[in-house]
# Entry
Amino acid sequence: MRSPARITTLALLVAGAFALASLERVLPNPFPMIRLGLGNIMTLVAFVTLGASGGAWVTAGRVSLVAVLWGGVFSPTAVLSAAGGAASLLIMIPLFLSGRFSLYGVSMGGAYAHILGQLTVAILLYVRSPGLLALMPVMGGAAIATGLFNAWAAGKLAGVLVTQNAGRSTQHAVDR
Amino acid sequence: MRSEINIAPLSRLRFADGVLLLLLAALTALSPRFLPAGAIGEQLTVTAMDSVTEIPLGVDGRYQIPGPLGPAVLVVENGHAHLENAPCPLKICEAMGSIERSGQVIVCLPNRIVVKVQGPEEVDAVSR
# Structure
């Protein structure tokens, strides 16, 4: 459904995801190989409030905005961010739709798929050597941890949004 | 009619989450086994600015590696190699540490540099 409320919520979540992703790029990172993936919090909130298609839009919107506004639409960074985003959606959507997983499972699966997608594309497109898989212990361990954290944050945020909306019409919600 | 969202089942850990967590933890822990440790390498293949250079691992040295963002320094010391003074924003290539065994790589994607260790077999195949 393309109700104005749904489109407004989507726009806010995309803006939030872009802001979080940007913040992460600007803050100093003592562990450059590890990304927190804070932008995914907004995708998870979209899953809860708008359903799977909402989540897909928020990730697609974030990846496109970051690519355009942070320079280099076809730069390796943007290509890898798109690969990670696509891989994470490919996993998060079925995990979410199955109804068996909470946000923790969806988020963890998405974070892990993100690094696997990135490593795969980096190996096939740029490195042409599986040696890059040596990064998996660090990146995989971090993906599990950040996935759990982002799920916790998204649960809190979604809780606030849902409670605040409870008095109003929330027709746009839940089309799992 | 209003559709209520019940987020309780979504914000609490469930059984399937635990199973997934164990699976991913196992995959992470076992991942080093996918890549058998190669033999101690003999030379480096450095791909930068679309050209390939071979550098011996057995001789200590510092090499300027050109890239679109500027030069990085490849340091070869005691049979190990690592990158220094990288001009890229995240410095992942520096964080990748030093490499010595065949198949190991250091990659700087923003600066389009790939350093790969070649073992004795590959060196033979290329140069003999």
Remarks:
- The mean pLDDT of chain A is 91.
- Chain A touches chain B through 50 residues (CB under 8 Å).
